[in-house]
Specification:
Structural class: alpha/beta
Helix content: 25-40%
Strand content: 25-35%
Pfam family, one: ADH_zinc_N
GO molecular function: enoyl-[acyl-carrier-protein] reductase (NADPH) activity
Mean pLDDT: 93
Order of helices and strands: EHEEHEEEEEHHEHEHEHEHEHEHHEHE
Radius of gyration: 21 Å
Keywords: Fatty acid biosynthesis, Fatty acid metabolism, Lipid biosynthesis, Lipid metabolism, Mitochondrion, NADP, Oxidoreductase, Transit peptide
Largest sheet: 7 strands, mixed
Catalytic activity: a 2,3-saturated acyl-[ACP] + NADP(+) = a (2E)-enoyl-[ACP] + NADPH + H(+)
Enzyme class: oxidoreductase
């Protein structure tokens, strides 16, 4: 009997346009494990913006080529080594190795590179639990001492991180002002974000309108701003922040540099910070990450953190899913299914 599994992975041999450089390749995975190793079968993995920029070679770090795509997903334990104590066959896990992609069928990991996941979660929630909800959670927890009734303002509010910010903030009784770009279905999107728990949803042009004065009759000015757009959008957030407020940048979708008025520093004492979830994960113990995932899971199980709008796409149809994920104004998360 063979001791090796035939597996497939979605890989790239060079950086570039994901539509051009990604390909499905066959590789073998050993079923003979070292005592501390665990064989897993991937169940599902989303296609995130970070995956796309990583494949293009413009991310904050690069995998060694050839590389397997994908950085987030959920898997099932198939087999454990003789000394493994904390995982059992059938358990759901999140692979957290930052040098090994997970768009594949099977993989072998040591215990320290897996985090436990509650297998009673919906598959879509478990598959999208490691990147966007933790990013939202950490930004709400780590920069400003937010109290019940505090206000957060964010751009890119319809992004997966933005939706997680809305819901986690709602869980902690924090107000949110959520800025989105105008679009043909803007009223439908506003309603969707409001149903998630947004306090206010506005389009970018409304940042320079009397709408803001009306908002601040009901809630205090934001002490925390979250920026994933950059350019002019970030500057407009700052105009409405409380003195001494903190703007945290975690993305640059506009590909424009931050445009901050010096007056905001001098008279309003605005502080600028950056946040990269990968760096947090690499500088904090696994136990702290597990604790965070457990708390986020509890919010999910209370029905207070829904997964983004999504669709499952068969692994073999990855090209279709990748292309769809890069279309403008896409609100539907593409999740690769390996089952």
């Amino acid at each position: 009997m063979s001791s090796r599994l035939c597996s497939y992975a979605i890989q790239y041999k060079e950086f570039g346009d994901p539509n051009a450089v990604l390909e499905k390749v066959e590789h073998e995975v050993s079923e003979i494990l070292q005592p501390n190793e665990i064989l897993i079968k991937m169940l599902a993995s989303p296609i995130n913006p970070a995956d796309i920029v990583m494949i293009r070679g413009v991310y904050g770090k690069k995998f060694k080529l050839p590389a397997t795509g994908g950085y987030e997903g959920v898997a099932k334990v198939v087999k454990v080594g003789s000394s493994v104590k904390n995982f059992k066959v059938g358990s759901w896990v999140i692979p957290i190795a930052d040098n090994d992609g997970i768009w594949k069928h099977y993989g072998v990991y040591t215990e320290d590179l897996l985090i436990k996941v509650d297998e009673t979660l919906p598959l879509c929630s478990a598959a999208t639990l490691w990147v966007n909800p933790p990013t939202a959670y950490r930004m709400l927890k780590d920069f400003v001492d937010l109290k019940e009734g505090s206000t957060v303002i964010q751009n890119g509010a319809n992004s997966a991180v933005g939706q997680a910010v809305i819901q986690i903030a709602k869980h902690f009784k924090i107000n949110t002002i959520n800025v989105i770009r105008d679009r043909p279905n803007v009223e439908s999107l506003k309603s969707y974000l409001t149903d998630l728990g947004a306090t206010y949803v506005i389009v970018e042009d409304e940042l320079q309108s009397p709408v803001m004065a009306d908002i601040f009759k009901s809630i205090p000015k934001p002490v925390l701003g979250l920026n994933c757009v950059g350019g002019k959008s970030a500057a407009e957030l700052i105009q409405h922040m409380a003195d001494g407020g903190t703007l945290v940048s975690y993305g640059a979708m506009s590909k424009q540099p931050l445009m901050i008025n010096t007056i905001s520093f001098i008279y309003n004492d605005i502080r600028l910070r950056g946040f990269w979830m990968t760096k947090w994960k690499n500088t904090h113990p696994k136990e702290e990450a597990q604790q965070m995932i457990d708390e986020i899971t509890s919010i999910v199980k209370k029905g207070q953190l829904k997964p983004p709008i999504h669709r499952f796409v068969k692994f073999d149809n990855f090209k279709e899913a990748v292309a769809k994920s890069m279309e403008p104004f896409v609100t539907e998360k593409q999740i690769l299914s390996m089952e």
